[in-house]
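Quick log. Single chain, no ligands specified.
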Amino acid sequence: MSVTDASDMTAALVLERLRSDHAPALLAFERENRAYFAASVPDRGDAYFEEFPARHQELLDEQETGSILFHVLVAPGDGEIVGRFNLVDVADGSAELGYRVAEKAAGRGVATTAIRELCVRAREEYGLSRLTAATTLDNGPSRAVLARVGFGAVGSVTLGGVPGIAYELDLGGSLGRERSGTAS
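-> predicted structure:
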C-alpha cells in the first residue's frame, strides 16, 4: 500500500516501538524528508546520515534503559515509515514528546491520531502521568496538533535560537475521564 494512495491513511498505519529491523525504512524516511524537516526544525547534519547504523543501534541500546521510548508509524505491507514519535527524558512519571511526520502524510490527521495513541500507551503501558512538548512559534501545524490532542501552552521557550512555546498534558485529565466514561 502506498501512503499517497491510501483513502483512510490513519486507519491503516501502525504505531510500533522502534526496532533494529526498522533501520532501512527509518533512514529512507529521514533522507526523503530532510529538506522538509529542515524548514521547521534544525537539520540533523550530514554526520547523522553517514553514521546512521551505529547511531540507530546506540538509540536502541539507550531505549533498553527506559529513559527514552522511540516509536515509528508504519504502513502495513511495505513497511514504509511515515512518522516518528518519541518520548525522551522519561523519569518521575513524565516525558517529553517529540515527533515528525513525512511531508506526504502531513495535514491528514496522522500526527494527531498517532499522538493520541501514544498518550494512551504513555499512561497505560509506561506508567506516565504527564507529557511535555515544545514547538517554534512559526510551526503552526505542530501547535495545532498539540492543541487538538489536549496539550496546553505553559510558557515560552527558545529552540535552537528560535522563539517557541512549551506545552504540557496531564495524562490523567480528560484522557482519563474519557476512558473511564465520566464527563469531561
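The longest strand covers residues 81-91.
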